Amino acid sequence: MASTANSKIEEVRNEADRLNSAPGTADQLMKSIALLLHEKMLKYNWVGFYMLEPGAIPPVLVLGHFCGAMTPHTRIPLHQGICGAAASSGKTVVVDDVQSDPRYLACSLETKSEIVVPVFVSGKVVGELDIDSHFPAAFGVQDRELVEYCALLVGRRLEKA
Q: Distance between CA atoms of 56 and 59, rounded to whole angstroms?
């Protein structure tokens, strides 16, 4: 079973590399990565990018490309929720049980776990990749590495813009 998961993650990482090597904007890459992760990783039930709104005071994360159910959280103040925690700390946040984390902003009763990975441009957080799962503790070490890699690719593309 573990080797199947490993090969799936490797396949998705290779596809992310292929998407990244194709011509296009950072916006197109975010759309493609959200779709890839949502379609290929069965436990990734909602995948989306939130980007910091330039010049917003106070700072706010704005929903960009996503795949999954609509969310009421299209604008998240920087220090609110798990998304705000990841963006304000600049660190990946993995929550195995969202009901036990007081920071969680409920989007769906089905969501059991979440991972949020910051996107950096020139060392500064500009957004994040947020993934929800209907399964508890859905995000292991390899999932974290995959999602962090996808966020890194987006950050690099944004730096070139």
A: 5
Q: Is the pTM of this model over 0.90?
A: yes
What is the full per-residue pLDDT of the chain (161 aa) written as tens digits?
A: 556 778 999 999 999 999 999 999 999 999 999 999 999 999 999 999 999 999 999 999 999 999 999 988 999 998 888 999 999 999 999 999 999 987 887 777 789 999 999 999 999 999 999 999 999 999 999 999 999 999 999 999 999 87
What is 2-160's CATH number, 3.30.450.40, 1.10.3720.10, 3.40.50.300, 3.30.70.20?
3.30.450.40
> Does residue 66 contact residue 49 with C-beta atoms inside 8 Å?
yes
Strand (E) or helix (H) holding 14? helix 2-21
